[in-house]
Amino acid sequence: MEAAAEPGNLAGIRHIILVLSGKGGVGKSTISTELALALRHAGKKVGILDVDLCGPSIPRMFGAQGRAVHQCDRGWAPVFLDREQSISLMSVGFLLEKPDEAVVWRGPKKNALIKQFVSDVAWGELDYLVVDTPPGTSDEHMATIEALRPYQPLGALVVTTPQAVSVGDVRRELTFCRKTGVRVMGVVENMSGFTCPHCTECTSVFSRGGGEELARLAGVPFLGECSKLVLGSRPPIPSLPWVGLTSVPPGPEGEEGMGAVSLSRRTTATCGSSTRALLKALYGHGWFGCVRFWPAEPMLGAGGADTAPPPPLCPAGSVPLDPELTRSLEEGHDFIREFPGSPTFAALTSIARRILDATPTCLP
Amino acid sequence: MEEVPHDCPGADSAQAGRGASCQGCPNQRLCASGAGATPDPAIEEIKEKMKTVKHKILVLSGKGGVGKSTFSAHLAHGLAEDENTQIALLDIDICGPSIPKIMGLEGEQVHQSGSGWSPVYVEDNLGVMSVGFLLSSPDDAVIWRGPKKNGMIKQFLRDVDWGEVDYLIVDTPPGTSDEHLSVVQYLAAARIDGAVIITTPQEVSLQDVRKEINFCRKVKLPIIGVVENMSGFICPKCKKESQIFPPTTGGAELMCQDLEVPLLGRVPLDPLIGKNCDKGQSFFIDAPDSPATLTYRSIIQRIQEFCDLRQSEEENLINS
């Protein structure tokens, strides 16, 4: 029976979110990165812990390859991305002398390193720690959850693609979460569809239906696919009827964030009763779980009055395939900052918004 | 904290558990007790069993989700089109066994006979084994640590009654860990023809695949070549090509040049591939004229040529 880890280094973290998937290559690291960036844009201090020892992708996604890790008096100092220390990272990728060198370790050695990652990194005060995991349900996952258990992880975001083959693996991950007592906050369906930049036809490259199926298995509502519901500031597919929600955070000059709804015929309705009626009607058709406008609009729910209490957590979202997103991650750019008008931005920030709403504000 | 990863002398070496780099390793006590010194008897048993298997091919990738299982399944389908060839497909992804679904064998169970476990047959000449067949529900999670996974792999190699097989294809999980070390160790005496490594054009994939190539070199596993999957997408409506996963650092082509490994082919993204995998059918039947099918077939041919060449080189060596 090992001694409990020092409470010190994790005591300053308010919420811990695991990003899981039974399946490889669905976009866990992508979602972890974009979630962290979106939470940072919402003014939060975020840390990312990359426990994928064989394939550590996080350093590259932040353009931080080759950065060195230093020791401080409380343990290891995480790698900070900026002077304000709004995002900090830790990954085995920083510890490899040669980036092409394979980490060929068996379980017990991986477990030992993960324990140290969890207890010896001096995170300081963080609003969120996002833990990016490798695929599977094995040593790394068990070691991570055991090491984090004293700190009551907030929960897990489970990522899938629309394919049934992905759902087949990820439903086992849901069982893993149930057995290890990790609460599933939401299901993210990544690679929902690809809109051809030449003709704007949206193709389901990786089949359809996976996110919805998984949300059903997890017992959480699912919001919609990219082809039906498009979030964004302008219609990417002009011929399709759509509802656009502009959730723009306050701008650099401090102008207030807008909340507006535009319809395909380019009529614009501001946040008034007609908008709410429209959204309620759409909800009735299963288009929305919940919607929130920035910065201060009340939550809207199905069928209720404007003063209805916020609906229960509706933790899901669809993220489309977006080569610009892929490129940003390859080159370590901040996609959230650079592409605020894209449907992908809106999908990612709406997922971040749900996480923010799910996490109670801590009083100082 | 110990540096990452220093040279382990090897569990079976004289220095096991005693070397300077052993300090702090969780396995130190085990190694020092000499437990690793005696070779696992299963290795000889597996060598015997593998005498009826002509060619063994591993399908690897450092990265997840690049299409290893998809490729393994279609390599099996492609080779099995010749009715005189006997094909075996072994899925050693213990946590995420996708092969049963892709081969249309979900819900099938494994039977024991006097000569061992019987594989599940898709065709008369195509048998499949996966941990998926041992699970009673699609929701069952296999939450096993390394040693238990290794035990399962040992059983798959030693206890499955494959019979006379021309090609054994081994589909692996992503990474470079227990499963990969085990399969290489257990098959060490039985000679693996080589590994096919799958990637996508992205640097995020390539950086993991370079590690996998180094792993293969470290354990002296011959590399048949690299397959670049999801290499370009042809819009079904306007037929124009887009790069969904842009090769920002030159793609597999440049990596193969740098590391001097053959590039076997570049398979484009065809939405029908995913759909057929979900339905458990061979994509070749649904889309025989797709550019993806044609590329797959040329890759399969190159793999066969590699195996035949290896075989004739070995025979020449024995006869000389």
TrEMBL record, chain A:
Pfam families the record matches: ParA
Keywords carried by this UniProt record: 4Fe-4S, ATP-binding, Cytoplasm, Cytoskeleton, Iron, Iron-sulfur, Metal-binding, Nucleotide-binding, Nucleus
Residues annotated to bind [4Fe-4S] cluster: C196, C199
Cofactor note: Binds 4 [4Fe-4S] clusters per heterotetramer. Contains two stable clusters in the N-termini of NUBP1 and two labile, bridging clusters between subunits of the NUBP1-NUBP2 heterotetramer.
Record-listed ATP binding positions: G22, K23, G24, G25, V26, G27, K28, S29
Subunit details: Heterotetramer of 2 NUBP1 and 2 NUBP2 chains. Interacts with KIFC1. Interacts with NUBP1.
Entry protein name: Cytosolic Fe-S cluster assembly factor NUBP2
Organism, as annotated: Macaca mulatta (Rhesus macaque)
Lineage: Eukaryota, Metazoa, Chordata, Craniata, Vertebrata
Automatic annotation (TrEMBL), chain B:
Keyword hit for rRNA processing: no
A Pfam cross-reference name: ParA
UniProt binding sites for ATP: G62, K63, G64, G65, V66, G67, K68, S69
PROSITE patterns in alphabetical order: MRP
UniProt-annotated binding residues for [4Fe-4S] cluster 1: C8, C22, C25, C31
UniProt GO molecular function: 4 iron, 4 sulfur cluster binding; ATP binding; ATP-dependent FeS chaperone activity; metal ion binding
Coiled coil: none
InterPro entries, per the entry: Mrp-like_CS, Mrp/NBP35_ATP-bd, NUBP1/Nbp35, P-loop_NTPase, YlxH/NBP35
Cofactor binding summary note: Binds 4 [4Fe-4S] clusters per heterotetramer. Contains two stable clusters in the N-termini of NUBP1 and two labile, bridging clusters between subunits of the NUBP1-NUBP2 heterotetramer.
Keywords: 4Fe-4S, ATP-binding, Cytoplasm, Iron, Iron-sulfur, Metal-binding, Nucleotide-binding
GO biological process terms, semicolon-separated: iron-sulfur cluster assembly
A GO cellular component entry from the record: cytoplasm
Cofactor(s) demanded: [4Fe-4S] cluster
Subcellular location as annotated: Cytoplasm; Nucleus
Known partners and oligomeric status: Heterotetramer of 2 NUBP1 and 2 NUBP2 chains. Interacts with KIFC1.
Family listed: Belongs to the Mrp/NBP35 ATP-binding proteins family. NUBP1/NBP35 subfamily.
Protein name: Cytosolic Fe-S cluster assembly factor NUBP1
Organism of origin: Macaca mulatta (Rhesus macaque)
